[in-house]
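TOPIC: backbone geometry
CONTENTS: sequence, structure tokens:
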Amino acid sequence: MSDAADERTERERNADGSPDAAPAAHAPADDARSIAHLEALGWVGMALLLAAYAAVSFDLVARDAPLYVGVNVLGAALVAVICAVKRAWPAFALEIAWIALSVPALWSAGA
């Protein structure tokens, strides 16, 4: 057997010496793209949370306005998704608490 064939055979074996299994149903690049999309949603959520906070801080919207509370819920939910995917449990818990505090306020605001 040639050196190139030996090298290829070595690459095709798992650590235990068994041949590689069938290729996965999706490539790692697909997983990376999925994570990238979820991270983008997390960034959107963060921007929504900051925008809502700025809007209230500069008296552009009332703190009990359905728009403000709704943007908080949406932003926290988007950030919570990427926190769960990345297993950032303390940040995930914070976002869930944020949602839990905001939803009753949204209901009482008449939304």
User: Anything to note?
Assistant: The chain has one domain: 28-108. Residues 28-108 form one domain. The mean pLDDT is 83.
